[in-house]
C-alpha cells in the first residue's frame, strides 16, 4: 500500500512538471507571435557622433533604451523623437538627430545613430551694477557718484570636463569688491544619483551703513 501511494505521488509530480514546461513554452510562443504580429526592431548597437567634448555617458543617461532592447515599429518614430528631445534638453547640443541604419530585415535588427552638434559651452557676461539699494538713492543721496558702481565680469562654463559640470567665476570691483567661484559636478557615481556642489565667496565694502537717519542710510 505504501509503495502504491509513493508511485502515485511521483506520477502526479511528474505531470505537474510537464504541465509547467508546456505552459512556459506556450507563453514563449505566444509572446514571440505577438512580437512578429506587431513588428519590432532589435537595437544591435548605439553609435554616438558629434560629441567632441561631451562624454558618451551623459547622452546614454538620457536614453530610455540600450543595445539589445526591442523597439516596436508602430511606436519607433515617437520613441526616437522623445529620446532626441531628451538629449537636446541637456542644453549641451543645439541640434540632435537620431537615425536608424544598417537595417537587417531578416534578423529585424539595426543600428541607432545619434548625431549632435554641440553647443557653445562658455559665456562671459559683463557686470555693471549699483552699490546702492536703488537708482533714486544713488542719484539723489549720492549724486550719481561713479565710485558707487560695481564693474566686473561673470564667466560661466556649462560643460567644463565634458560631464555636464558647471563652473562660474564672478569678479567685480568698485563700491563692493566681490570674488566668487561656483562649481557643480552632477554625477559622481555610475548610477547618476549623486552630485557635488562647491562655492567660495569673498566680499569687501568700501563703506558700511551703521545707522538709519530720517529713512536714509548713514555710512
Write the layout of secondary structure elements.
Elements: H1 2-38, E1 40-49, H2 56-60, E2 70-72, H3 76-88, E3 93-104, E4 109-118, E5 122-130, H4 135-141, E6 149-157, E7 166-174, E8 176-185, E9 196-205, E10 211-213, E11 216-218
Parallel strand pairs: 1-4
Antiparallel strand pairs: 1-2, 3-4, 5-6, 6-7, 7-8, 8-9, 10-11
**Sheet with the most strands, sense and barrel status:** 5 strands, antiparallel
Walk across the major sheet and give the strand order: 5-6-7-8-9
Query: What's the average pLDDT?
Result: 82
Number of strands: 11
Helix fraction bin: 25-40%
Work out the strand percent: 35-45%
- Return Rg in Å: 32 Å
Overall number of structural domains: 2
Element pattern in H and E: HEHEHEEEHEEEEEE
pLDDT < 50 runs, ≥5 residues: 1-12
Q: Helical element count?
A: 4
Shape: elongated
Q: What are the salient characteristics of this protein?
A:
219 residues; alpha+beta; Ubiquitin-like (UB roll); 2 domains; five-stranded antiparallel β-sheet; four-stranded mixed β-sheet; 4 helices; 28% helix; disordered N terminus
Summary of the model, kept short:
Helices cover 28% and strands 40% of the residues.
Could you explain the architecture of this structure?
The chain is an alpha+beta fold and 219 residues long. The chain has two domains: 52-117, Roll (Ubiquitin-like (UB roll)), CATH 3.10.20.310; 122-218, no CATH class. It is 28% helix and 40% strand. It has four helices and eleven strands. It has helices spanning 2-38, 56-60, 76-88, 135-141; strands at 40-49, 70-72, 93-104, 109-118, 122-130, 149-157, 166-174, 176-185, 196-205, 211-213, 216-218. The strands form three sheets. Strands 5-6-7-8-9 form a five-stranded antiparallel beta sheet, with no helix packed on it. Strands 2-1-4-3 form a four-stranded mixed beta sheet. Strands 10-11 form a two-stranded antiparallel sheet. The termini are far apart. The relative contact order is 0.10.
Amino acid at each position: 500500500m505504501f509503495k502504491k501511494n509513493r508511485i502515485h505521488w511521483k506520477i502526479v509530480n511528474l505531470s505537474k512538471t510537464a504541465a509547467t514546461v508546456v505552459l512556459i513554452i506556450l507563453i514563449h510562443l505566444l509572446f514571440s507571435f505577438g512580437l512578429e504580429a506587431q513588428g519590432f526592431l532589435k537595437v544591435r548597437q548605439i553609435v554616438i557622433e558629434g560629441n567632441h567634448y561631451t562624454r558618451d555617458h551623459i547622452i546614454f543617461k538620457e536614453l530610455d533604451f540600450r543595445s539589445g532592447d526591442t523597439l516596436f515599429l508602430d511606436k519607433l518614430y515617437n520613441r526616437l523623437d522623445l529620446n532626441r528631445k531628451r538629449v537636446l534638453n541637456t542644453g549641451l547640443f543645439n541640434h540632435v538627430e537620431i537615425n536608424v541604419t544598417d537595417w537587417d530585415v531578416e534578423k529585424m535588427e539595426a543600428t541607432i545613430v545619434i548625431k549632435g552638434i554641440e553647443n557653445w559651452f562658455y559665456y562671459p557676461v559683463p557686470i555693471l551694477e549699483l552699490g546702492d539699494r536703488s537708482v533714486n538713492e544713488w542719484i539723489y543721496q549720492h549724486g550719481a557718484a561713479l565710485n558707487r558702481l560695481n564693474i566686473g565680469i561673470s564667466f560661466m562654463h556649462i560643460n567644463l570636463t565634458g560631464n555636464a559640470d558647471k563652473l562660474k567665476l564672478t569678479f567685480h570691483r568698485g563700491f563692493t569688491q566681490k570674488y566668487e567661484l561656483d562649481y557643480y559636478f552632477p554625477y559622481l557615481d555610475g548610477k547618476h544619483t549623486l552630485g557635488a556642489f562647491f562655492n567660495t565667496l569673498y566680499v569687501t565694502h568700501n563703506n558700511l551703513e551703521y545707522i538709519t537717519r530720517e529713512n536714509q542710510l548713514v555710512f
